[in-house]
Amino acid sequence: MILDAPDQQNWPNDLVVRQVLGSDALSDASRDHFVPKPVLDAIDRRILAALQEDARLTVQQIGDRVGLSASPCARRVRLLEAAGVIKGYVAVVDQVAVGLPVSVFASVKLERQREEELDRFAVAVTRWPEVVDCYLMTGQRDYLLRIVVEDLEAYERFLKDKLTRLDGVASIESSFALGQVKRANALPILQR
């Protein structure tokens, strides 16, 4: 991993700053301006591709795939984690197998697009487990949500008990997915 900074060897990263100045030394906002963004090289991209394919690979297995021994591979993985490039590791669960076969895409328009209203909506949505994706959008609508539920009645309860009760919502337009053509959890990082 190459850090985009004048002196790459001595440029402080988030871990060093936190170790020296304390865990609260950098706020999320100031960190983005203070810590350089990583520039990924070809090996980093191959490591990420391998982990996106199977996050249960051992460091040795990843190293074998990318042409590194275990120690340098582990170091690179730790750096990718510390830089926030790797945000975590999860199991991908089949939504139909767990009884949530219905995906609804809801376009939401707010009465006003002031910061307070946008923040209030975002905070509310993060508390609702039915909402698995939420995007702030350009165009006619302000937000696009993907909601997963067990059936149409569950979606109706979600609308009546949560979404329509939120102050500032002007309109909601729902579209039900008939089927899923593609869903990818891996980003196309090797295409660059």
Termini gap? 15 Å
CATH topology tier name of the largest domain: Arc Repressor Mutant, subunit A
Overall structural class, as computed from helix and strand content, comes to alpha+beta
Strand content: 15-25%
Shape by Cα distribution: elongated
Number of helices: 7
Helix residue percentage: 25-40%
CATH class of the largest domain: Mainly Alpha
Largest sheet: 4 strands, antiparallel
Assembly annotation:
single chain
Rg result = 21 Å
Order of helices and strands: EHHEHHHEHEEHE
Number of strands: 6
CATH superfamily of the largest domain: Winged helix-like DNA-binding domain superfamily/Winged helix DNA-binding domain
Low-confidence stretches: 2-27
- Please tell me the CATH architecture of the largest domain by its name: Orthogonal Bundle
With strands numbered from the N-terminus, the spatial order across the biggest sheet is 4-5-3-6
Number of domains: 2
Write a compact overview of the structure shown.
This protein has 192 residues and is of the alpha+beta class.
What does this structure look like?
- With 192 residues, this protein is an alpha+beta fold.
- The chain has 2 domains: 2-82, Arc Repressor Mutant, subunit A (Orthogonal Bundle), CATH 1.10.10.10; 102-176, Lrp/AsnC effector binding domain/regulation of amino acid metabolism (RAM) domain (Alpha-Beta Plaits), CATH 3.30.70.920.
- Helices cover 36% and strands 18% of the residues.
- The chain has a 4-stranded antiparallel β-sheet.
- The two termini are 15 Å apart.
- The model is unreliable at 2-27 (pLDDT under 50).
